[in-house]
Amino acid sequence: MDSRRYHKADGDMWPITWAADGHCYGAAGDNLGSPMNVWRIEGHPGEPFWGPYPHLFLIDNLPIDPKEYCQRPHVHPHWGVKPASLLSLNGVLYFAVQLMNFGDNPSFNRQHNISSWIITSDDNGNTWNREATRQDFFDGRLASPHFIQFGQDYEGARDEFVYAYFPAAMDGNSYWCNGDYLLLGKVRRDRILERDAWTFYSGDEHGQPVWHSDADRAAPVFEYPLMTGENHVSFNKGLNRYIMGNFSFTDKQGNPRPYHQQPGDPVDDSRFPSQLTLFEAPNPWGPWSLFHQDNNWGSSGDYQPIFPTKWISEDGKEMWMVSSGSEEDYNFTFQKVRLKLR
User: Fold this and answer.
1) I need a surface site. Which of 87, 229, 278, 297 has the fewest CB within 10 A?
2) DSSP code, position 300
3) pTM above 0.90, yes or no
4) Phi/psi of residue 195, each to 5°?
5) CA–CA separation, 107 vs 258, rounded Å?
6) Distance of alpha carbon 41 from alpha carbon 183, whole angstroms
7) What is the Cα–Cα distance from 224 to 246, expressed in whole angstroms?
8) What is the pLDDT of residues 13-23, one digit of tens each?
9) How would you classify the pairing of strands 332-338 and 318-325?
10) Please, is 45 exposed, middle or buried when counting C-beta atoms within 10 Å of its C-beta (0-12, 13-18, 19+)?
11) Which residue ranges does the record assign to the DUF4185 domain (predicted)?
């Protein structure tokens, strides 16, 4: 992984999809005074057009009005709406939006995801159908969906389904950081907005995955107790592998410690390390194998690693990782990753 880190824009989280018009689209949290907004990202790392920085263009600074959606119990009244994931499919952007608070368990104060729903845009994010699904489309363990990214506009997907991961914890809730495992759901491409059409991985039978519509029967496809992040997965076509970046916050002794564990100055609260772990798998349900680990990632605790599929080389050996972090990395941060195959 290159030591050189490039920065652009502001805010954090940055879920990214490769759209039909050839550009990438990303959503940011806590950006330009807004809890959530949407950007068009033009160019490709290494192209002369980029220069030292990507070209980001703000599309919508307030796709969801927090005054309308953050007045619910257990949701932060001002900053409780955040981006979870974006997916481009057949020229339509599907935007998974989540409601959350900044922690409600003092003993292990993780950002708590309350519920999520999907809004859509058929004009590259200029306007949104905010009523595409109900606001509690997903909740409980499913409160934060993250779509698997394939090629441009979902080109090269493995089958007729859309897949999404859901970070969850042993207590039956979903958290932004330091969870326990990931669940996996799928739905036919033409039925994404129908909640009853979703099914969930519940185990293997004779070497084949078993799917159930009952989310209570969903079984983990990835487990890392108290260290599972709100993860994104991209398909690396050149290597025929699924790539996942996982982030975990720790104390200075390496023990799990949520980002918002202690009250007080948020700057002081962020001066703790994070761990980056990168995994690969032959299928969305695994098995997952670790291929990189950094126990002191970023300048002061980075998070949310993402590998945009547009920025993966044809042979799969070179990728660009987008991430966020506190202090100087609290923005669109990206760096090159080179893979050595055994």
Assistant:
1) 278
2) T
3) yes
4) -60, -35
5) 10
6) 29
7) 9
8) 999 999 999 99
9) antiparallel
10) middle
11) 80-252
